[in-house]
Amino acid sequence: MEINMLQAYPKERHRGGRVGWLRAAVPGVNDGIRSTSSRALGVAAAHGT
What we know:
With about 50 residues, the chain is an all-alpha fold. About 65% of the residues lie in helices and about 0% in strands.
C-alpha cells in the first residue's frame, strides 16, 4: 500500500513568509541610524576645532 504524503498531511499555514519585509527592514533602519549619527558626530567634531 502506497501512501501519498501530500494527502496524508494537510497543508499547514505558516506566517514566516509574511515577515520577510520586517527582517529586511531592521538592518536597513540600523544602517540609517548609524550613518545619521556618524554624520552628526562628524559635523560636531568639525565645528569643535
